[in-house]
Amino acid sequence: MVVDVELEPIKFDGEVFTKPIFIAGPCSAETEEQVMNTAIPLAKMGIRIFRAGIWKPRTRPNAFEGVGSEGLKWLQTVKKETGMLVSTEVANVKHVYEALKYGVDIIWIGARTSANPFAVQDIADSLRGVNIPVMVKNPVNPDVDLWIGAIERINNAGIKQMAAIHRGFSTYDKTLYRNSPQWQLPIELRRRIPGLPIITDPSHICGNRDFLQDISQKAMDLNFDGLIIETHCNPDKALSDASQQVTPDGLKGILDRLILRDSEVNDELMLTLAGLRDQIDKLDDRLINMLEERMNVSEKIGNYKKDNNITILQTKRWDDMLKNRTILGTRKGLSEEFMVKLFRSIHQESINHQTSVMNKE
Ligand code: PEP
Ligand code: MN
After folding, report:
1. Is there a contact between 1 and 194 (Cβ–Cβ < 8 Å)?
2. 91 and 50 part of one domain
3. What pLDDT does 305 receive?
4. Ligand 1, from 27, 55, 141, 200: best to mutate by most atoms within 8 Å of Cβ?
């Protein structure tokens, strides 16, 4: 079901920003020199929107929590000297007033804030009657409705120039990424609010520089609208998120290597795609039938265990199975992460089937 959100394209002085929108700048503004040494090369390479955190939401206290309002003056200098638009994160009403007072052009709501409807509503109320583009990061937890709720709250306050930022989701399990991308969520967001630009934040997804290129490419392949990439004149010395930031040159390398594909599909491509999608449908159908067969066997096992009064979960068997399936899968080019998730979920479903068999009168 499509969500009713009234949107206008993001524009400045009447100029509409066309995709892809690239936003770059440091995780945090640290000093005027650092801000300018980052902004000047970015402007030279054609970046139009500068980002810098002024107030930093840190997980633990006593870490660098941002320079505060003083940094907003440096952003004014960036605007004046480079002509770039400037953007920063706001997490409360005070931040909104300060950002507006210093002429920040675009604000964004961070992942920890969008998880909190009270905080988002306060920010929304403070934006009534203000004409400023607002970007809403996904909440830290993978809940697309909470993300949409935050977007609706801001939109209901009269903000029409909006974008969503996909920055990945917290997980308890250690994964390759700092924040698991879970692409199905921004894809679902696109389905629910088709007109809303989605900007991917590879920096906070990756947590390191190594996969920025892959994640950026994936975002472009999914036809998302832009990228926000943390860029610092001296990344290793950054006061926050050092390992994920790149130099302006590093960013240029990433953007130069990006392949932008055509999203307008012509008839011939359409036919080829339709043929391939048809194959996928058939394969999925077979998968479902095989899962059904597998559950039937599980139920037989359940009956057998019931008759012989033995427990459902035999840990050793499950450990061996998981190991063996993961090896088989990785040999076929399936990732270990995927195999573990897939078999955990199949196993859980088997247990559910066995439990219902065993508890039947
Ligand atoms: C940031 O953009 O630097 C930031 C704090 O991001 P997030 O809210 O995605 O963690
Ligand atoms: Mn950061």
Report:
1. no
2. yes
3. 86
4. 27
